[in-house]
Design brief:
The radius of gyration is 13 Å and the shape is globular. 3% of the residues are buried. 83% of the residues lie in helices and 0% in strands. The chain is an all-alpha fold and 66 residues long. It has one domain.
């Protein structure tokens, strides 16, 4: 894992929000971007949201392991 992704995971954890709320927040932001030009207008933000989704998925998969 890249150091940037580790920092992103730490940052998401520091927000102290349930994962379901983070997912909802990211989906809301992604929908806004999609409705206002998508990757053509918001390439950086959508890339960050993709990375946040991946970080949440990794965090969730770690919780499932004993």
């Amino acid at each position: 894992m890249r150091e940037e992704d580790e920092v992103l995971e730490e940052t998401l954890g520091a927000l102290d929000l349930p994962e379901r709320m983070l997912e909802r927040w990211f989906a809301h932001n992604r929908a806004f971007c999609d409705e206002h030009g998508g990757r053509r207008v918001y390439p950086g933000l959508l890339e960050l949201l993709d990375r946040c989704d991946q970080a949440l998925a990794r965090r969730g998969s770690r919780k499932e392991k004993p």
